[in-house]
Design goal:
The structure holds 3 protein chains of 3 kinds. Chain A is of the alpha/beta class. Chain A contains 6 helices and 4 strands. About 4% of the residues of chain A have low confidence. Chain C has a 4-stranded mixed sheet. Chain C is globular. The chains are: A alpha/beta, B alpha/beta, C alpha/beta.
């Protein structure tokens, strides 16, 4: 029997960038094992976490993600030997950059989830979803995407009106 | 029409315009630099410095939307921008070197194709310029046939006076209309003494001679010497009051997005890069040559004037110290040989 | 000794050396600085004949990092023979990085080092005197003013460095003390000025890609238009691509016509990478930077 789905005011959009060998397989296992986890997460599959460019994370936020998860094989288990070691360094650096420009790092989660860890996948996704839900929508990037460079800043009501008319 | 306007009354004029819902744009400090930006209150106006970017963006924004598209199922909806929604605007504190560039842009944007976006904004804008009282060694307006009190492009021109306040002279119907609409703020000019005007150090170029040399020297080895140092950024073109190249791009997804027009520059490698992979201007000196040719030959051929007002912004801001006045001096020297 | 006396001695020595190496065929060309039209101004120049060597100068307005002219992004320089290049110690760090990234070969360079007491922060008015107010922020934090490992360095005694406030350190600390929302609005205001002239990219010795990711539109990872969204993405991508490589010549910040404090991002990243991976750019020729290598013991406390 399914539990009645709890209703929420805000359903966050979570984008998960995962490697195909470990985390994708882990998420697949969670599915085939009929484990329940929030449907807020949308998976994007990559060959390896080493292929995940920080710009993908930016793009996800710009296109409306409220939270981003990056997940791959545990250290030592990479299908390509060292992809996740490189990713680990890159994301350690990228987090610092995002923090410095004012992004709340609570919206960004990194994890190692193996093909056998369906339970951990459920746990990671549930925790991130609930945390982001509590934080509310990610406004910053969406507002930026809407903002126009239209002869300087949109500071007057007339400009705003003209823009809205567009 | 010739009137006098005190500094207090200038503030009152701007206040009245803002209160009446007119968009007032003037030099205002934004994150450390001076830009022509909409003013919320008149006291944001800064008049003693040349803004970092020119006034062209009041008509030709850095980036603007041309249309929006949305696809739902098989249904595609296009939405045009309604230029009628562009606000009535008054530009204030425009430097003569910026104002003089506006007719230069007018000629291009109303030539074989009438650019609605530019022209509608232009029609809704009244330009109050301010005669210039300070120049540095990058300024050369007089050398390209203009002057620190050049009225070209201005609807109303303010000249700062020795005892404070301004002399206000209208140079168009829009200027007269502004004077008449706010007649209470202007007074009859007394025996006034204007502040001494700016004195640029570079006093004149023989633009005819320079053009004649350019006519003959598309291929010339001196271009290499002039522009080997150019690193190919768009800094000079973007701060230029008269450069007007733009690119158009669709941005968004297959579901929805916008078509946008934004500044482009002939210094970029990508500017002439063909889809085939061929690039006719494959070498930086060729791109820089185009900059000089366009400003002092092609534009002159087409519209009978020069595409440079001597504001000196490109001279001050070039990352590698390319000095267009120095380049012109060099060309003039060659032309005299 | 004043700055002028030091730099005029440096200039004299550079001219003599450039003339010598051009004349005896050691180098095919020398990249250096020469005077420009405005009082006190300087600009990069490429010389190929010994008799041209007298055009070379050195002054506080010789701000450019000439290393950019040696990268494959710049195709205007002679490609054959050894190239002589005039570098300050900050510029030399860029050369060291380029050698490490196999962009240059040491034996194809003839490095003329400049004993440096600092250059101007801005050349809007190139004739201003070099002093504690006008000196570039990077020079305030510089502690190697004698280029190490150059082929030629003029013998000039430099006075002790004055103790100046380290502006980047202070500014980074100020930003770090803010809330994320405050930092976000600070950077948005700065990035809103960006007009995508790409001067920061074009002068950077490390931006030598034949085609920049940000110039591509299939796929378009970064919006090319100068709008708030694309501006932010561009500056983050830039900072990320330079992380672990940028040695702090601060050319990006100097050339920004909109005065965006770009080097703050680079300095912040450099500090973080030093802390995380004990790695600093520009000191030794190394094959791999901190983000191109790894250690199995790297910190992963941020990963679940």
């Amino acid at each position: 029997m399914h539990h009645a789905k709890p209703k929420h005011e805000f359903e966050p959009k979570i984008i998960a960038f995962v490697c195909t060998w470990c985390t994708y397989a882990g998420a697949d296992l969670a599915g085939t094992s009929r484990m329940q986890y929030p449907a807020n997460v949308r998976l994007v599959k990559f060959p390896c976490t080493g292929r995940i460019d920080p710009v993908f994370i930016l793009k996800a936020f710009q296109q409306g993600a409220d939270g981003v998860l990056v997940s791959g094989c545990h250290p030592g288990d990479c299908h390509y030997m060292a992809g996740n070691f490189h990713a680990r360094r890159r994301f350690a650096a990228f987090r610092k950059l995002l923090e410095f420009i004012g992004v709340d790092l609570q919206r960004l989660q990194f994890s190692w989830v193996s093909a056998a860890e369906a339970g951990k996948w459920v746990e990671v996704v549930t925790e991130l979803t609930e945390r982001v839900r509590a934080m509310g929508p990610m406004r910053e990037f969406k507002d930026l995407a809407l903002e126009e460079q239209w002869s300087g800043s949109l500071t007057t009501p007339e400009l705003q009106e003209a823009y809205e008319a567009i | 029409m010739r009137k006098q306007l005190s500094s207090e009354h200038l503030t009152a004029l701007l206040q009245a315009l803002i209160a009446a819902g007119t968009r007032v744009v003037g030099p205002r400090r934004v994150a450390g630099i001076l830009l022509y930006e909409p003013l919320i209150t008149p006291d944001e106006l800064v008049l003693d410095e040349l803004p970092r970017r020119s006034v062209k963006e009041a008509f030709f924004p850095v980036c603007e939307d041309l249309l929006a598209y949305e696809k739902q199922g098989q249904q595609l909806t296009l939405q045009d921008v309604d230029p009628a929604s562009f606000p009535q605007t008054v530009l204030v504190g425009v430097r003569p070197c910026d104002a003089a560039a506006i007719p230069v842009l007018d000629a291009v944007f109303s030539w074989d194709y009438k650019d609605q976006f530019f022209l509608e904004r232009r029609a809704r804008t009244t330009i109050i310029s301010l005669a210039c009282t300070s120049a540095d060694d990058a300024c050369f307006c007089t050398a390209v046939g203009l002057a620190p009190d050049e009225p070209r492009g201005a609807d109303l021109m303010l000249t700062p006076l020795e005892d404070g306040g301004y002399l206000a002279e209208s140079h168009s119907e829009k200027g007269e209309a502004l004077l008449e609409a706010h007649a209470g703020l202007f007074s009859e000019p007394g025996a006034v003494q204007p502040l001494p005007l700016a004195q640029p150090q570079t006093l004149s170029f023989d633009l005819k001679k320079i053009k004649a040399w350019l006519d003959e020297h598309f291929e010339d080895e001196s271009w290499d010497g002039i522009a080997t140092r150019c690193v190919g950024c768009g800094s000079c073109a973007f701060v230029c009051p008269a450069c007007h190249c733009f690119d158009i791009v669709d941005e968004g997804s297959e579901k929805s997005g916008k078509r946008r027009k934004f500044w482009d520059a002939c210094g970029f490698w990508k500017f002439t890069h063909h889809a085939s992979g061929h690039n006719p201007r494959d070498f930086q000196p060729k791109r820089y040559r185009n900059r000089i040719m366009h400003k002092f030959k092609y534009y002159d051929d087409k519209f009978g004037q020069t595409l440079c007002t001597g504001c000196g912004r490109c001279v001050r801001l070039c990352p590698v110290g390319i000095d267009i006045a120095g380049v012109l001096e060099e060309i003039e020297k060659k032309a005299n040989e | 000794m004043t700055t002028e006396i030091i730099y005029s001695a440096v200039g004299e020595a550079i001219r003599t050396e450039a003339e010598r190496v051009l004349a005896d065929g050691t180098v095919a060309a020398v990249v250096g600085y020469t005077m420009a039209r405005r009082k006190g101004s300087a600009q990069p120049v490429v010389l190929t004949k010994p008799e041209e060597a007298n055009q070379l100068i050195f002054s506080a307005a010789c701000v450019n990092n000439l290393a950019v002219y040696l990268t494959k992004a710049k195709k205007e320089l002679p490609r054959e023979g050894r190239i002589g290049i005039v570098v300050k110690s900050c510029d030399l760090k860029a050369l060291v990085g380029l050698l490490g990234e196999s962009q240059l070969k040491r034996d194809s360079l003839y490095i003329i080092g400049v004993p440096c007491v600092g250059v101007l922060g801005s050349t809007l008015q190139p004739s201003v005197e070099l002093n504690a107010e006008t000196v570039a922020d990077k020079c305030r934090e510089c502690d190697d003013r004698m280029p190490q490992g150059a082929d030629f360095v003029p013998t000039v005694a430099l006075p002790a460095s004055p103790a100046l406030e380290k502006k980047y350190a202070v500014e980074i600390a100020r930003l770090e003390a803010m809330t994320p929302a405050e930092r976000w609005s600070y950077w948005q205001e700065q990035f809103s000025k960006c007009i995508k002239c790409y001067a920061c990219r074009q002068v950077c010795p490390f931006c030598f890609c034949e085609q920049c990711l940000c110039d591509r539109n299939k796929p378009q990872m970064v919006e090319g238009t100068p709008r708030p969204a694309g501006n932010l993405a561009w500056h983050l991508v830039r900072a990320m691509h330079l992380a672990g490589r940028c040695a702090g010549c601060a050319e990006c910040e100097r050339v920004c016509p909109m005065d965006i404090p770009l080097n703050l991002l680079n300095r912040k990243m450099s500090r973080e990478l030093k802390e995380l991976f004990h790695s600093e750019a520009g000191f030794e020729v190394r094959e791999k930077g901190p983000l191109a290598e790894y250690n199995e013991q790297d910190d992963q406390s941020f990963i679940k």
